[in-house]
Amino acid sequence: MSQSEVNHAQVIHKLGSPEAMQWQEWPVPGIQPDEVRLRHTAIGVNYADTYHRAGISHPWKVPPCPVVIGFEGVGIVEDVGKDVSNFKIGDRVAYGIPPLGSYSEARNYPADKLLHLPEWLDDREVASLIMKGMTAHYLLHRTYAVQKNDVIVVHAAAGGMGLLLCQWAKALGAVIVGTVSTEQKAEAAAEAGCHYPVIRHKQDFVDVVHEITEGEGAAVVYESIGKDTIMQSLDCLRPMGTCAAYGHVSGPPDPIDIIQDLGHRGSLFITRPAIMHYVAKRSDLENTANSVFEAIRNRTIRSSINYEYPLRDAVIAHQRLESGKTQGATVLIP
User: Fold this and answer.
1) pTM
2) What is the mean pLDDT of the chain?
């Protein structure tokens, strides 16, 4: 493919609402020596994509507009840079970390962040799981290493990320309290392994945690809602418990007072984990991805793809994702 050839992509000229994305021609630049050019076969959609599109603060910075967002994809290698030795034309590959640009038919991507895709894995399943799966892996194994019989709290337990956390945590032997917004989502969370689905507007998850732990509290809370729940999340923890605040769909939390909010509650830990720090080393990236691939293979985690759209309809995908009514994973097909 020459530099003059173009592909289509969802291009953002000004950060904002879902309608900021425009389906148009988008050039693929000349390949750099350390890059691979790939043509997408499936693209994952994450809630973090909505942060990038809207310009909401996030650990990953969005390049200046015009820009193409998205950081999770599967495809076929079409060309390799002169310094790339571990990939060849025709390889099936996947990635789940920036640089952004997956909402496109084709793109260049750095070879040192790219992953070989085992032949027994389905493209759409991996696109829906690779970033979320790697996130679930580091949250459950490294941010806080979940042990058998640990009581844990998973917010948005019926979302794409929440379902994976429930599935994997169940395999680890944890006792899971999951918060959801509807009866239907409570059922989905239970099917994924959540022992105590809590509908937030009907029941206080802090009370549920204290009841099942006889007042001790949870070992860890995986906090993805943010402003609306952060203080309750701290309230539900046991002394020296961990709040892993990896998302904020209700808005960024208010500032935390380390003396009043953490010290007085029992020497709590709070962290804002981000995947790029956990897979910064090539060895960590490969080990994490291989753990995810194996978890897919043995059905510890499942894709639960409930929404599939043509890439040209990414605006609709974002509108529905932000409505709060989606359940499970979403993928885009070029």
Assistant:
1) 0.88
2) 94
